[in-house]
Amino acid sequence: MTGVVRDPYAYDGRSRCRPVEPMTSHPATGVGRERQRDADRTKAEILEIATREFARHGYTGARVDEIAALTRTTKRMIYYYFGGKEQLYTAVLEKAYAEVRATERALDVDHLGPVEAIRTLAELTFDHHEAHPDFIRLVSIENIHHAEHIRTSPVLASLGTPALDLITRILEAGRESGDFTASADATDVHMAISSFCFFRISNQHTFHALFGRDLTAAKHRTRHRRMLGDMIVAYLTGT
Amino acid sequence: MTGVVRDPYAYDGRSRCRPVEPMTSHPATGVGRERQRDADRTKAEILEIATREFARHGYTGARVDEIAALTRTTKRMIYYYFGGKEQLYTAVLEKAYAEVRATERALDVDHLGPVEAIRTLAELTFDHHEAHPDFIRLVSIENIHHAEHIRTSPVLASLGTPALDLITRILEAGRESGDFTASADATDVHMAISSFCFFRISNQHTFHALFGRDLTAAKHRTRHRRMLGDMIVAYLTGT
DNA sequence: TAAATAACTTACTAGTCCGTACATTATGAG
DNA sequence: CTCATAATGTACGGACTAGTAAGTTATTTA
Description:
The structure is a homodimer of 239-residue chains. Chain A has 239 residues and is mostly helical. The first copy, chain A, has 12 helices and no strands. The longest helix of chain A is centred in the first third of the chain and has 23 residues, at 39-61. Chains A and B meet through helix 1, helix 6, helix 10, helix 11 and helix 12 of A and helix 1, helix 6, helix 10, helix 11 and helix 12 of B. Chain A binds a DNA duplex (30 and 30 nucleotides) through residues 1-6, 9, 16, 27, 35-39, 42, 63-65, 73-77, 79-80, 84-85.
């Protein structure tokens, strides 16, 4: 008799949560011993390790066995919860993007004038890329695969684009105030900012190998952060 | 008795050329029949197919068997000429970079004033990225692997940086003429230009999936090309 | 407490993939 | 023409890798 009754290979994207109790005390002892079996903890741990491994080695390069070995659980659980390597990878992407979007939603530059607002947004985008190199690697990897996992994920389709919406509002305000001369498109500006922020992380290794400059070094980071703001503002305020 | 006497797995990076005779006529017939055995043609064909396969699938994702199947020769020859998957990949990178540098060396903007010179350079860089998506994918892939193959390649270390040298000269001229106010660093400007050009190709798939915009569409390409020039010039001429 | 089921483990398999041993043939030199 | 050797083909092995079958234990629910 098999112990698993519901479809054991289905990952439905929803969390099978009990009421949140991250450190359940053991029913017998009553003291703060962790539950030996905890679906949420196990799933979270798999996702965390998988994120690192996929970011490090790419989709094909990452090994299911290795991911399993790095968790406190076994490979079988990956298939139990996620269904397979590909679905695990998709789940990793979904989680990573969800976190990014959440950060973007927290952006608040409403109290600033358009020029300072766009500069601040650019700098925060800069900082955010700096702080999440694994995410950037995942995006690079996903592009190698023609974004096929992102394209087919309903979760990712419904995340919205907080940063883009914010830029749209800033540009409108700038045009009304007369600060921004150019009739710049919000998506274009977003792309320009993203390019700069993304490249210095994503291409740091080839850049260093070819030009001998470590783009992540503090002195360059500070200068580039200002440079990005200067460049975007110069472009929008026109000449 | 083995037919191979010299080290069969060594790829020395030099070409084992006979005097160039791309279409040797058959000694017997005299008509333009290709030589059945042609080391240079075989090597070139392997490199060409390998470039495509590595660009498409990444280093780990590319299959030696598949590369061999797509050529008119066999897997054995890949090992005969290149030594292994990794050396083949390095050879692919070396060839791709050599071609890029050659294009860069052909850049000529000496007849232009600084402002038009930097704009033209930016636009040509833009066009060049547009024309070589496989190269861009290879660079992305190499960054996933921390540029370990580029770092250890003596060939790539000695290629120089024609584009960067050119920017250095343009910036000097611009400062002397007074057109460029900012004391911008040449490497920074190169990075800014590269970022923009690289990103719209490398990240086109995730960008399209998330923002619904095809960055390679003609109408956007034309606008972005101008936008890049505008942005760099605005930055350098200051506000 | 007992039954039901969710959570987890072990051991295995079928297929893939890089690399190689060995055999063979075309080609150019003398 | 003949011989040395560069160039190529065939067939296979051994390690790896995604995925699975079958069984066990903890936890919850009634």
